Structure formats: C-alpha cells, structure tokens
Amino acid sequence: MKELVEVIAKSLVDYPDEVVVEEKENDRAIVVELRVAQSDMGKVIGKQGRIAKAIRSVVKAASSQEEKKVVVEILQ
User: Fold this and answer.
1) pLDDT confidence of residue 65
2) pLDDT on residue 56
3) What pLDDT does 9 receive?
4) Which of 1, 17, 21, 28 is the S-S candidate for 6 at Cβ 3.0 to 4.6 Å?
5) Cβ neighbours of residue 18 under 8 Å, at least 6 residues apart?
6) DSSP one-letter code for 14
7) Which of 21, 20, 17 shows the shortest CA–CA distance to 31?
8) What range defines the domain where residue 45 resides?
9) DSSP structure class, residue 19
10) CB-hemisphere CA count at 13 Å for 10?
C-alpha cells in the first residue's frame, strides 16, 4: 500500500521529492501516513477533500485482499 500511495501522491504534487510515505502496522489496521510539502497540501486534499477521499477509495479497493483495514492519514 505504501508504494501505491507514494505513486499517486507524487503524480499530484509540484515537489515530488518531498513526498514521504510511512507504513505502520498494529494488530487491527495498517496506517499509511502521507506527508507532502506545505504548498502541496491543497493538491493532495482537493476541494472539499475530494482528492483525499479518492486516494482512500483506491487504497481501500487495492487492500480488499488484506485481512486488516488500511487507513490513509495525510499529515503536515
């Protein structure tokens, strides 16, 4: 999931070198943390959160084979 989020985020932003994706796993879920440059936050979130929701939907569809829930968090 980490690679998927990274590819999507890098294609959206102006500064792809500053995209950082970390994957943390606990007993119930896999948390994918996405960090981008401050100036790119709007591009990743989108108007009314539409882009962020689309990223989460794609990840959810891709993780349907996983036994754990996958959560995407966009952090500053």
Assistant:
1) 85
2) 96
3) 96
4) 21
5) 35, 36, 37, 40
6) S
7) 21
8) 2-75
9) -
10) 12
How far apart CA 47 and CA 20 sit, in angstroms, is 22
Sheet containing strand 20-25, strands side by side: 20-25, 29-35, 69-75
Cα separations in angstroms, 76 against 36, 40, 53, 63: 7, 10, 17, 24
- The tokens for 41 are 């936050």
Task: Say how many Å lie between the first and final Cα of the chain, rounded.
Answer: 20
- Bridge partners of 2, per DSSP, are none
Cβ–Cβ under 8 Å, residues 16 and 1 = no
Q: In which residue ranges of the chain is pLDDT below 50? A: none
How many structural domains compose the chain? 1
- Structure-token match 């990223």, residue found: 55
> Locate tokens 């936050």: which residue?
41
Which domain CATH number covers 43? 3.30.300.20
| Cα distance between residue 36 and residue 73, in whole Å | 12
